[in-house]
Specification:
two-stranded antiparallel sheet, 9 helices, alpha/beta, 47% helix, binds adenosine monophosphate
């Protein structure tokens, strides 16, 4: 099954992608995680992407499409995948369509997670990340067992630059302008389902379960 998670930054896509990995046994493909790995490894792509990311801007479409091109043909994608944070613009969606056509594949399901802007700002301010695994916590909604520490490794959690409030507001503006038109784009191409992302994490997962069954 090939699933695309759509929704504002901080709307819970990453958290629900982790749920779906276990539920369906398919990998999560997060362009944000892939880019952060490039930034950590200081690759050419990472050095280029870093400026855009810390400013809350989108990394150029051609960079993203080049990075994705090799990923969908990896062996772990044979039974499907969960796209998280990609595509984010119409040109990216068109580029993805071309890639899928070459692979004779199709996205089966688009899940749109809806959350109001002010709730996003509150959520992201409390977000903490374990940099090496990408595990995400929230000081109020999903706290780690020990404050400031990753549950599995005990390592320090951090606040990402792009989770600062002014950056978050800018990212939301870009989401409404560039990414939300994808909902209309996919309506005629795939099954599009909307979910209330302001429920608890478990309730959102249950709503996804209902859609899947
Ligand atoms: P995320 O972890 O998905 O919120 O992504 C973090 C940042 O990476 C975004 O704010 C963008 O700067 C960049 N990014 C991730 N995915 C994309 C994409 N598909 N297109 C453009 N930029 C992206």
């Amino acid at each position: 099954m090939k699933i695309l998670l759509l929704g504002p930054p901080g709307g819970g896509k990453g958290t629900q992608a982790k749920y779906l990995i276990n539920r369906l046994n398919i990998p999560q493909i997060s362009t944000g995680d892939m880019l952060r790995e490039h930034v950590n490894n200081k690759t050419d792509l990472g050095l280029k992407a870093k400026e855009y990311m810390s400013a809350g801007a989108l990394v150029p479409d051609e960079v993203i499409l080049g990075m994705m091109k090799g990923r969908l043909v990896d062996k772990d994608c044979n039974n499907g995948y969960i796209l998280d944070g990609f595509p984010r613009t119409i040109p990216q969606a068109e580029g993805l369509d071309l890639l899928l056509e070459e692979l004779d594949q199709k996205i089966d399901l688009i899940i749109v997670i809806k959350v109001k802007d002010d709730n996003i700002v509150e959520r992201m301010g409390g977000r903490r990340v374990h940099p090496s695994s990408g595990r995400i916590y929230h000081i109020k909604y999903n706290p780690p067992k020990n404050e400031g520490k990753d549950d599995q490794t005990g390592e320090e959690l951090i606040i990402r630059d792009d989770d600062q409030e002014n950056t978050v507001r800018k990212r939301l503006e870009i989401y409404h302008k560039e990414t939300s038109p994808l909902i209309e784009y996919y309506k005629s191409r795939s099954r599009v389902c909307h979910i209330d992302g302001e429920q608890s994490i478990d309730q959102v997962s249950q709503s996804i379960d209902k859609i899947l069954s």
